[in-house]
Design a protein that fits this description.
The chain contains two helices and eight strands. It is mostly beta strands.
């Protein structure tokens, strides 16, 4: 599956059909501001997401079929990744324990 990395999104976003294909159960719902400025409520679940060989469990928003698959900032941080603002590529995040 291919995702668009969206540094403006908090969570990963998948379509209802993808969620059904993965047999994800909805665990609740949350309100999100979408690209056009509207606030929408979407169901959420948890999914195991693997990027570049690293995997984590992350909250995913379940949107309608016309919504692109997105990988948001929280999911990236859980994976220990960030987006390089110059190249647009995923790079390792400096992890800190303070």
């Amino acid at each position: 599956m291919e995702f668009i990395v969206d540094a403006g999104a908090i969570y990963a976003v998948i379509s209802k059909s993808v969620a059904e294909g993965l047999r994800l159960e909805e665990t609740g719902s949350r309100k999100f501001r979408i690209a056009n400025g509207d606030v929408m409520e979407y169901p959420v679940s948890e999914a195991y997401i693997i990027v570049n060989g690293e995997g984590v469990t992350s909250v995913v928003a379940i949107a309608d079929e016309k919504t692109s698959l997105l990988l948001g900032v929280t999911t990236l941080e859980l994976l220990g990744l960030t987006v390089d603002p110059v190249t647009g590529k995923l790079t390792p995040l400096e992890l800190m324990i303070l």
